Amino acid sequence: MNTIHIIGGGLAGSEAAWRAAENGARVVLHEMRPVRGTDAHQTDGLAELVCSNSFRSDDAENNAVGLLHEEMRRAGSLILRSADAHRLPAGGALAVDRHGFSAAVTRALEDHPNISIERGEVAGLPPEDWTNVVVATGPLTSDALAQSIRTLTQDDGLAFFDAIAPIAHKESINFDICWMQSRYDKGEPGEEGAYVNCPFDEAGYRAFVAAVVAAEKVAAPEAAHSGPPPTSATSYPATARRGAATVGPPPGHIVTTPPNTRTKPPNQSHQTSGLMVNRYTASSVPCTEPAYTM
Ligand SMILES: Cc1cc2nc3c(=O)[nH]c(=O)nc-3n(C[C@H](O)[C@H](O)[C@H](O)COP(=O)(O)OP(=O)(O)OC[C@H]3O[C@@H](n4cnc5c(N)ncnc54)[C@H](O)[C@@H]3O)c2cc1C
After folding, report:
1. Superfamily assignment of 4-158 in CATH?
2. C-beta 98 within 6 A of ligand 1
């Protein structure tokens, strides 16, 4: 079989390279970092996670994402194997140590006899003599390649739009009211709980939404909103600007622990909603808030 060229050593390109190589193909994986960076990646590691280090639910029996994880495991996924080896406590979610995870993927690909890794930008459409090509350059495809794809497809609608969850400083949380406990008490035995449970009464909730709307914002780099403005915005702060009733508690963030199993009951008697914030998965990367909203 002719060599397969894979452009982009992110999550998709790394998995594709691994699978093709495991099936006996010769693979050249082209990754532009560190020769050329992106506005969000911070290392030269393959499969670097940008922003959240959570792969969401790992519950194969009750959740579609968890089921997909399980299918990938059974198919021999390098991404899942590396994630499992570097997982962090996160209740029923699969969250990873981003550096250990990326290092494991990088090592596995570097050590594979069928894979060679070329560091450098593919600055346009692939050469004619690359007969098998996978383009896996993700949302931050370099300008030169993106422009070539635009020209080829005569499509000016290529766009990337990012949203971010607000980050709350731990010192600002009142632990006389809030408590640590994982959703449904899932997690490792003896674990204190990976989530900060923040119950609200209505007044407190409205104050929280107002504080999010008024909070200091991270300036969005150009890469976070390339292309035309989206028709709807999905970020929590953006939605919050439309009013407390619009945001509600975000799906999956509602306090779901039955009251009689709380390890630390909240002081409020009229809890209307709440947030659960994972203490391991908050991003250390300055992700962005969309520029095109309200
Ligand atoms: C700021 C930001 C925040 C995000 N937050 C989240 C999040 O919280 N949760 C989530 O699930 N997803 C998030 N995403 C989306 C995230 O990028 C994808 O989930 C995931 O990384 C996509 O994998 P990928 O392999 O397609 O792209 P990437 O992981 O981005 O990999 C693409 C790779 O291609 C390389 N590349 C680009 N152009 C070229 C070129 N011309 N030649 C050679 N190499 C090239 C890049 O350097 C990169 O390593 C975020 C993305 C961004 C940009």
Report:
1. FAD/NAD(P)-binding domain (3.50.50.60)
2. no
